[in-house]
Amino acid sequence: ETFTTILGAELHSGTMQNGELWHILAVGLPADFEPADAPGFVPVAGQETGPELARRAVDAGAFVAIAHPQWSGMTLEDARSLTAAHAVEIYNHGCAMGCDRADGFQYADLMLSEGRDLTMIATDDAHFSEPDHFGGWVMVRSETLDPEALLSALKAGNFYSSQGPEMHVVEIIDDTVIVESSSVVSVIIQGHGSASQASHGTSMTRTEIPLTRCKPSSWLRVTLIDAAGKRAWTNPIRHT
Questions:
Q1: Which CATH architecture fits 167-238?
Q2: Arithmetic mean of pLDDT, 128-157
């Protein structure tokens, strides 16, 4: 088999600090998951809060992500309150095409520096009302396409996110980041605060970057950029 599906949903309930409805991504929901009470797709009194809904989804077995935080106008305090979330949606292609608010990196980076254990996902969020599909996805490392195996891999962080570039190896050896990938023109390392390092070239498939400015950071992540400007992103790597 070369194709499988996993039951998921974007869940909505409660009010963020800007007065708008929470959007929470849940993958691997059971079929009998009780929907939130969100009549008219607007916040109403007495609803579950967003953090309560996220916790209920996790308790039901789902992989939960903080959905399109920039598009939502979410505050950092909002994002912090979703303590049950596994991940932050760091790229949403629908939000990129529809309003140029696709980003979630600032939220993820700040919470990583606060000690949160989070991964990062890219998605399409395709509504097919504009060219919002096939623009962002995750590449999961799993022995099988069994939905439970894929869900376990997501929860374990065994994946990377991409718009096209492929990652084959990312490792740290003797304070050097080694990346083997499809052909790219830039490899960038990010860490706490303003820490970053980069290597640029032509058709790079193996890149080694000694850690200097990023070495003190407690976490690192890696971005690849290909000649077409398409990106791929690792999950955070805890570094000591």
A1: Sandwich (2.60)
A2: 94
